[in-house]
Amino acid sequence: VINNCFKTILSPFRYILNLTRPLRRKRHSLKRKLTDLEKITQSLVKIFSWDIHQKILAEPRYMEAKRLLISGFKAFSQNEEDGIIQEIFCRIGITNKNFIEIGVGNGLENNTLYLFLQGWRGLWIEGNSDYIDQINEKFLSYLNNGSLIVEHAWVKKDNINQLIKKNGLSKEIDLLSLDIDGNDYHVLEAIEPLEARVIILEYNPKYRPPVKWVMKYNPDHSFDGSVYYGASLKSFEILLAKKGYKLVGCNLYGVNAFFVREDLVKNHFLDDYSAENHYEPDRLFLRSWMLPLHVENFGSFETK
Length: 304
Description:
By secondary structure, the protein is α/β, with parallel strands linked by helices. It has two domains: 1-58; 70-290, Vaccinia Virus protein VP39 (Rossmann fold, 3-Layer(aba) Sandwich). 39% of the residues lie in helices and 12% in strands. The protein is built from ten helices and seven strands. Strands 3-2-1-4-5-7-6 form a seven-stranded mixed β-sheet, sandwiched between helices. Strand 6 and strand 7 (256-261) form a beta hairpin. It is globular. The protein starts with a helix and ends in a 26-residue tail after the last helix. This is Methyltransferase FkbM domain-containing protein.
């Protein structure tokens, strides 16, 4: 009797399931097709962005022998900084393989991880506590052996020199990278002495040369995703010229600028160190072709 009752109760549900089965099959089929279409679209976007990228680099301006952009590639950098960094040091040489990077994210995509994998040592400074936790987990063995130092700090013009000195890197280093999405100009201006052989800075491409523009200093500034951050390339050029540096290039996507200490420049770079010569506009839309197939990660490794 109970079984008959259940059958009676379930009969309408079975009827509905049977009635909707073709619709559910079509839904699953449509979902698979949409997934395939999404993959095809992503592939086409990568192909088109790569094609535009190559056409830009084929322009006469970028074919000049000493221009850096043609050397760009991405390993662990956000864009093509890894290749440009490598080319700069091929031209001027390497000394102590020490670096400082301010604003490193979770450690898996920045300007110095690729160098670290090649035996460099240095200091990472990051203000985001979640990123610091991820770094402490991923890079624990290297933090323990001292090849990598991580400092959790909100960088300001009033504490930057103390942070550098505290970690024993106040003398000449090979590379300084700064990207804090706000007070970059003011922090850079405050660093004394500034003896890095190469400096990488994020500039604000909104303000083309000859515009001089610097975000007003705000120790409590937090990046809000808008164009209100940092400084124009021209302002950075002028500031670093006073500190003894030459602008030697920018990356194609209009994100980072590269400066070399003037005693090292010699005849290694284009003999025009102006923002007008090296400025690149915002081309982040071209990054699609560089998106990795696999998620970025890091683990213990051997060099042999």
